[in-house]
Hints:
The chain is mainly α. It contains six helices and two strands.
Amino acid sequence: MGNKKDRESGSRTSDAKEELEVFVPMPEKIKTLDGQEIEVPKTTWKDEIQIGRIISKGVSDIPALKEINFREIKIADMVSLLPTIIGVAPDVITGVTSILLKKEKEWIEDNLNSEIIIGLLSPFFGNFLNKVLKKVDIAKLTKLTEKVPLPN
Length: 152
């Protein structure tokens, strides 16, 4: 057997993996604000690359994130970032939704609301994490990430 720390770490990673394996499937269709049903296309690798780039740019547009000590983060730290996050997040969310639906950003803004978008993005990101973590040995990933210093 391992030591107590290994058992606890193994238990946490097992729990995390079980949680991620329960996910909501991507909707095949969504309804717009005016009730029109549109099909949700399959996501390609090209789409996932573009989504990664949009999210990466969004994160880099919030330079204050680099100043936060994530090991000792406080609510006040996050509250101070809210104005910047609120300024950046809509563009990121609209961009990701635009890629997933293969529609122009203006169409997304005119035909969907936050409830519809969250109903699309939540399963997408849940499924993406599930795919990634099924291919990765969680215990090895946890040990590897313990060695990576968090940004200060």
